[in-house]
Specification:
Elements lengths: L2 H4 L4 H15 L4 H12 L5 H10 L6 H25 L4 E2 L2 E2 L1 H4 L2 H19 L5 H24 L7 H26 L4 H28 L2 H4 L5 H4 L5 H6 L3 H11 L5 H14 L2 H20 L6 H15 L3
Antiparallel strand pairs: 1-2
Length: 322
């Protein structure tokens, strides 16, 4: 089953969010306006707005307040991707040219800054200091996560704990915040807000682990970018860390990283080794542990349709191919 089928009944609300996104990223400056909508028009799952909508359904579902949160978190996500593509020197995102590829790094950095600012401005529709603090703190965590990733590039002296800390900041923090902010906008009881935050955190951890697995197992067509590109850029993800437990592989990777001029020539063989090792299965096992925790977080929530949809999304994330 396709992911969108699990929350098809949210389509009218998601269409309103899409329209609000389009209007919010518009800019009077022609280049900034075109660059800001470049990523928006490339599509995406809009998973974070979905989490906001579903979390809000556990309380008072005021669409105007819920929409403000949904648009804000998606714009934070979009801005972080524009900056990511500069850092990773990516040419493609969702199969379309990145902002940095179509214009340049400076335009991309200012475009990301602009979208961040518009996100914070849009959330002012919500008169709730706690919501603003959570979103600001999440942006800080995202930034620290990016800095840690830059620092850890081409560094083989790292372990699974380092990786999980980065994933928490780079990915899980925003998904957890999406669930929590949806709960706050819906005035959900505090104990349920905490459970929704936990669900978002565990789903976010699993989501990124699966993303990192797919970087090795999916095709370039499915990924919208070359397979194995994370490792080519020096990013050591969970499958790589598990593969590095083999000392011979570890030494090979260390040698390749020490000779950047030959990475393109030598890395494909290492990527093939990872795909043929037990590193992929081991990564799936850790993802499944997080999914089990996500299911458990839902247990004490009221039995409404949104709860079943959150379960379905968790199942989809564990089995997704793209």
């Amino acid at each position: 089953m396709k992911l969108a089928m699990t929350y098809a009944y949210l389509k009218p609300d998601l269409q309103l969010i899409e329209k609000a996104l389009e209007e919010t990223v518009k800019a009077d400056h022609p280049v900034l306006g075109e660059a800001s909508t470049q990523l928006l028009h490339a599509g995406g799952k809009r998973l974070r707005p979905v989490f906001v909508l579903l979390a809000g359904q556990f309380g008072v579902y005021d669409l105007e307040k819920i929409k403000a949160v949904a648009v804000s978190v998606e714009m934070i996500h979009m801005a972080s991707l524009v900056h990511d593509d500069v850092i990773d020197e990516s040419e493609l995102r969702r199969g379309k040219p990145t902002v940095k590829a179509k214009w340049d790094n400076r335009i991309a950095m200012y475009t990301g800054d602009y979208i961040f600012a518009r996100s914070l401005e849009y959330l002012t529709i919500i008169n709730n200091a706690k919501a603003h603090q959570i979103l600001s703190k999440t942006m800080v965590e995202l930034t620290i996560g990016e800095m840690e990733q830059i620092k850890s590039k081409f560094n083989v002296n790292q372990n699974v704990r380092h990786y999980l800390r980065r994933v928490k900041r780079k990915t899980a923090s925003l998904i957890a915040a999406s669930c929590q902010l949806g709960a706050i906008a819906g005035e959900v009881p505090k104990e349920q807000e905490i459970l929704l935050y936990r669900y978002g955190y565990y789903i976010g951890m699993s989501y990124q682990i699966i993303d990192d697995i797919l970087d090795f197992t999916a095709s370039a067509q499915q990924l919208g970018k070359p397979a194995g590109s994370d490792l080519m850029q020096g990013n050591i993800t969970l499958p790589v860390l598990y593969a590095m437990r083999d000392h011979y592989f570890y030494q090979q990777l260390k040698e390749v990283f020490s000779d950047p001029m030959n990475i393109n020539m030598k890395m494909p063989a290492l990527i093939k080794q990872i795909k043929n090792s037990d590193a992929i299965d081991a990564s799936f096992r850790l993802s499944n542990l997080y999914l089990e925790k996500a299911y458990h977080a839902l247990d004490a929530l009221p039995d409404i349709k949104a709860k079943e949809t959150l379960k379905d999304i968790a199942t989809y994330i564990g089995n997704r191919k793209t």
